[in-house]
Amino acid sequence: METNLALLLLLAPFIGFLINVFAGKKLSGNLPGILGTVAVATSFAVTLSFFLQVSSSKEPVMIDLFEWMQLRNFKVNIAFQLDQLSLLWLMFVTGIGTLIHMYSISYMHDDENVHKFFAYLNLFVFFMITLVMGSNLLIMFIGWEGVGLCSYLLIGFWYKNHDYNDAAKKAFIMNRIGDLGFLIGIFILGFIFNSLDYTVIRTAIESGKLLQPSWGISIAALCLFIGACGKSAQIPLYTWLPDAMAGPTPVSALIHAATMVTAGIFMITRLNFLFDLAPEVQNIIAIVGAVTSLIAASIGLIQNDIKKVLAYSTVSQLGLMFLALGLGAYQIAVFHVITHAFFKACLFLGSGSVIHAMHGEQDMRYMGGLRKVMKVTFITFLISTLAISGLPPFSGFFSKDEILMTAFHDNKPLWVIGSVASIMTAFYMFRLLYLTFYKDFRGTEEQKKHLHESPGLITFPLIVLAILALVGGAISLPGNSWLNEYLAPVIAKQSEHHHMGTTEYMLMGVAIIGAFIGIGLAYAKYIKQSSVPGQDSEITGFAKVLYNKFYVDEIYTALIVKPIYALGSFFKNAIEVAISGFIFGLGKLANVLGTEGKTLQNGSIGFYLFAFVLGICSIIVYIFLAK
Amino acid sequence: MDVSFILITLLIGAAATYFAGNKWASKVALLFSVAAFAVTLCTVNLLNNGENVNSVTRWIKNPMISISLVGDGLSLIMVLLTTSLTAIIILATLKNTFKNAKSFYALILFMAFAMVGTFLSADGFVYYIFWELSLIPIYFIALIWGGGEAEARKKDVIKFFIYTFAGSLFMLVAFIYLYQKTGSFTNGALVRVNLTDKEQFWIFLAFFLAYAIKIPIIPFHTWQANVYQKAPSAGTMLLSGIMLKMAIYSIIRWQLPLAPAPAKEYMHVLIILCVAGVIYGSILALKQQDLKKLLAYSSLAHVGLIAAGAYTLTLDGLRGAVLQMIAHGFVVVGLFYAAEIIIRRYNTTEISEMGGIRIQTPRFTSMFMILVLASVALPATFNFIGEFELLYSLAQTNIWIAVLGGTTIILGAFYMLRMFQQVMLGEQNAKPFADVTFGEGFVFVTIIGILLFFGLYPKPIIDFITPALENTLNLINR
Amino acid sequence: MENILQQIGIENYIYLSTLLFCVGVFGVLFRRNAIVMFMSIEIMLNAVNLLLVAFSTYHQDAAGQVFVFFSMAVAAAEVAVGLAILVAIYRNLNNIDIDSLKKLKG
Amino acid sequence: MLTVFYILSAITLGTAFLTILSKNPIHSAIYLVLCFFSIAGHYLLFNAQFLAIVHIIVYSGAIMILMLFTIMLMNLNKEDEQNKSVLTRFAAVIALGLVAFVLLATFIKAQPVIEGYQVSGQDYQSIKVLGKVLLNEYMVPFEFASVLLLVSMIGAVLLSKKEHINS
């Protein structure tokens, strides 16, 4: 029964995918969308039942299907594991997934390939469920690559535009760089533990019978972290995420904000017992997370594309989560993943609603004043913005504050970086809010006439997500955390409980003041001074560097892509030519030997005889004399 | 019933096809290739039931040569690959019209016959004969029915012929030397002979030349891209799908058990050479403007990884090599078939002249996409199993080699997606492009079905080949 | 009956035939006239014959002499055909200078 | 007998040299006849009377007459032969030296192996014995020799026949 239910949970989106792929074209109107939504909703319902079961019984559900792969020292099965962590993840993946599917019905209904869109979206949910549900690293890897594939398909959904296709390709390839790291990590773990099952690895570690030196584990952890960097857009593999905004907005909300990009955090949390053994890797994770958070936030300060701002904000928030992971505070990272999923999905969907109203315009410089026409969108957007800025009592406040608090306890410089990033976040989010919804409309008259509030299918998910963003913090209140208790079985090392003392309250105060500083700056600049960001050419100085994202893309192109192409040209024009020249040279040599050799046959019998005598002499010498 | 039935079926098929006349040739060929596949399946079934499927016939008394055909897991899986791919290839060409079709199809079946013979022979001399025999049909297929300018084609095809032929002559020398030592050509006798390390080295080298050219491993690959480009698609599929697997199969069956000492001593050199081929082929594929050449270089990269796995001398490496051979066989046939469809409809092989196909042909695009993804070894496709085992075996020898070999999953995605984007995506092309017909779709669906099914449930194949590979490994480590 | 080998060693005959043979070789290389080259070849043949007879006596075996007999038969046949060829050449070229026969060059 | 040997040897080598060096082919032929006679003398020294007679008959009688006829037929009895180039002559001398050196060196190297001559007293070279050997042991080659002579005769006739050039 459990197996069947779990398979239903897994396969419902896949069936939705199949129907939409094969029959989607024939389905009329919103049917593909409804179908897709129902499929994901089914998964959500099953997840919910499992969630209730497991949170009461505290026993994970294990499902072992059949043998998949055989390696020298172990076998890999197709097997699934529904424990606290995976169910939690499934809850918000399928839950938010359902909402976003619903949203997409309306958002995408004009598109000619709407059935494909829902097919891909369903496929994504399927792979995401695989990733989360898998009971060993290779199953996770199926999902891991599968979601990358769906991300590729959905970013390049409007495939006629080669810029979008390039973005899709870039996302896939950058992910693959991480995936290589992931694979190498899997290999090393395979050597050390002779298994890839989480439970086996965990038992091996906890039994303390590990014979291998710990540096093997450290390298494995580092490799896995590289994989996580690719998927979760951390330095140095983050540049694909902002480009990924080429996809339709629901995709950005679902894949590139709420679910897929958190896969890296899921993986590290899943293997927390492993990372606990590698403190130096944890340090690297924390530093990378903090730096990513700061750099992405600083780039976000000055972007004008509404989705780009949100994308950099996502990268920045993911950085914060990695900071938490690096500090060993897995529950807090998970907490932030969840709250972030709520408010960031809401923000993206809100921006989608705005873009919908603006008929595809994404540049904030041509928006403004939307508050009056789009009330629901505005209010939900405002709530989410407050949440991400870290103002109490919104959910983002609790999660972010806990991260900063942990950082303050463990590593003060990282705390400073995180705090600065948070202040920046407050600034650019309110900048976004002010530019989009306040003041007067700056677009064309044509656009202004068509401005409208989005239909109910769009606003409903917004409202739900906004409510969640508002109250989501309740699952892990400081001092009384339901989440920590819930996750306790899957987290090997419990982080020490922060006693809520004066320091903690002071830190909270500092965080709130920081948020207000950010908001105040934004207010001063965009409401008081009514300034609007200038055209691209007017940007100068450091701002230009920020606006061009520190030229990271250009640097990567110059350092990696160009050399590869140059190497390709070199191989093609030099080495290939040389090798094939050598081979042809051998043929030519035979030819030359023939033409030259035939002149030896000059017809002069005297010469032949002379050669003959010489030959006889040498034979005699060889046989009789040369001994 | 033993393995010789497969050979007989194919040989009769070749003759029957020739005498069936141009009109019926393709159908007769298809019939016999399917029959051969069915016979192979029966043989596999027999073997699984524990029966003996070997066939030994005395041929020449002095020198002692017997036509001994041995069917074990390793050889029969390759025969299965050959017969199934031959059927698929014939099916794929069914819609084309060839002049002198009876010769064309008869040559295809004859080539299948020779390749099956190569896989089955346990007598070195007979093996060599089959090995060379398979070269003749493909030479004519590429020469007569190939594309491009006649003179250039002739040059490339002759280069290919002489190149591979020259390589295999060294193998013949090695066999004759071994015969001098043992007085027998049979695999079983040859692997038991005690050779000094120096002798083994030279024998290894002789075999290596033959195989390195056929596979091809850099720097012996220069014949490949041009021949793939110029040969007709059926020829390219035969070459890349089956023929180069002959060489890798031979490495496992002949080279490693016969000369294990140098294989162990020079393992790292060999693996690095193969892995260099992976990177080299991938980077070159990025620069190709010709669709078939791009696929040729991608094949170079993939096959390099397979050879590297075989040379690791680990069970995972050998198993990964066999699995990946099968997977790569199907994928590359599918890809070349897709390329053939595009090329036939656009009448050009230049990637720059393509584009925007996806709007016109959603079904074809999906199938092509799946093949591309399988070729970049997305998990849950058969190729992933093979590639994972290969990389795992490389990691067992040296983790850095695994990293280098693993760049194939990055570079592979890079050039394949780049190609896919340029060929399929973008604004609608001015030229019309009809969607796949039922027959074409059937070929694709068959290939994709095989790739996905075994991607999730490779156990039957793994169980089938593992005992034979363990035997081989025992011989290597004797 | 006593023969020469009872008085001098066989090496004298070996030296003699060697020298005779060398003279033949020299003649073939030195002259352009085909007939004289022919004669030189006969000298070489005779050098060998002489040696064969010498060894036949030395080993006291008739086979060597029989061999010389055959070689004479072959020489006769060879001369007949060779001279016929020379005549044919002479008829075509009006000389038998060996250096003018260079049609067979590669 | 020793003196006879030396005289005969001197005649053999001398006439052989003169054969080669004379400008006039007729002279060459005549010197060669002398040379052959001296070789027949050597055969007599070996007590090989049969061979000596056959040698005189075949070489001096048949072969040399044939040559002389040819020379006359071609009207070659004049000294119009051009000398070869210096290089060729030099090469010829070198070849002479080389062959002589190599052969002599081989012999000298082999000399220690050669044993002294011992008389066994058995008859091995009388005409009777030779005839028996020839017609018993060497019957087949003997017959083939006759075929060879026949064929060479036919060949010679065919070759020297005047060709009928087609109009």
TrEMBL record, chain A:
MF-aspect GO terms: NADH dehydrogenase (ubiquinone) activity; NADH dehydrogenase activity
GO cellular component, one term: endomembrane system
Location of the NADH-Ubiquinone oxidoreductase (complex I) chain 5 N-terminal domain: 68-118
Domain NADH:quinone oxidoreductase/Mrp antiporter transmembrane: 135-425
Name assigned to this protein: NADH:ubiquinone oxidoreductase subunit L
InterPro entries in the record: NADHpl_OxRdtase_5_subgr (IPR018393), ND/Mrp_TM (IPR001750), NU5C-like (IPR003945), Proton_antipo_N (IPR001516)
Alphabetical UniProt keywords: Membrane, Transmembrane, Transmembrane helix, Ubiquinone
Biological process, per Gene Ontology: ATP synthesis coupled electron transport; electron transport coupled proton transport
Topological relation to the membrane, as annotated: Multi-pass membrane protein
Transmembrane segments: 6-24, 31-52, 87-105, 117-135, 141-159, 180-201, 213-230, 251-269, 281-302, 309-327, 333-355, 376-394, 414-437, 457-477, 505-524, 574-593, 605-625
Localisation per UniProt entry: Endomembrane system; Membrane
UniProtKB/TrEMBL annotation, chain B:
Transmembrane segments: 6-21, 28-47, 67-92, 104-122, 128-148, 160-180, 200-222, 234-254, 266-287, 294-313, 325-343, 364-385, 397-417, 438-457
GO molecular function: NADH dehydrogenase (ubiquinone) activity; NADH dehydrogenase activity; ubiquinone binding
Subcellular localization: Endomembrane system; Membrane
Domain (NADH:quinone oxidoreductase/Mrp antiporter transmembrane): residue spans on this chain: 125-408
Membrane topology: Multi-pass membrane protein
BP-aspect Gene Ontology terms: ATP synthesis coupled electron transport; electron transport coupled proton transport
Protein name: NADH-quinone oxidoreductase subunit M
Annotated source species: Flavobacterium beibuense F44-8
Biological classification of the source: Bacteria, Pseudomonadati, Bacteroidota, Flavobacteriia, Flavobacteriales
Automatic annotation (TrEMBL), chain C:
Transmembrane region(s): 12-30, 36-55, 67-90
Recorded GO CC terms: NADH dehydrogenase complex; plasma membrane
Membrane-topology annotation of the record: Multi-pass membrane protein
Catalytic activity, EC: 7.1.1.-
HAMAP family documented for this protein: NDH1_NuoK
Protein family according to the UniProt entry: Belongs to the complex I subunit 4L family.
Name under which the protein is recorded: NADH-quinone oxidoreductase subunit K
Organism: Flavobacterium rakeshii
GN (gene name): nuoK
Automatic annotation (TrEMBL), chain D:
Key words, A-Z: Cell membrane, Membrane, NAD, Quinone, Transmembrane, Transmembrane helix
Transmembrane segments: 6-22, 29-46, 52-74, 86-108, 138-159
Listed InterPro entries: NADH_UbQ/plastoQ_OxRdtase_su6, Nuo/plastoQ_OxRdtase_6_NuoJ
GO molecular function per UniProt: NADH dehydrogenase (ubiquinone) activity; quinone binding
GO cellular component terms given for this protein: plasma membrane
Catalytic activity: a quinone + NADH + 5 H(+)(in) = a quinol + NAD(+) + 4 H(+)(out)
Enzyme class (EC, first level): translocase
Record function comment: NDH-1 shuttles electrons from NADH, via FMN and iron-sulfur (Fe-S) centers, to quinones in the respiratory chain. Couples the redox reaction to proton translocation (for every two electrons transferred, four hydrogen ions are translocated across the cytoplasmic membrane), and thus conserves the redox energy in a proton gradient.
Family according to the record: Belongs to the complex I subunit 6 family.
PANTHER family in alphabetical order: NADH-UBIQUINONE OXIDOREDUCTASE CHAIN 6 (PTHR33269:SF17)
Protein name: NADH-quinone oxidoreductase subunit J
Organism: Flavobacterium beibuense F44-8
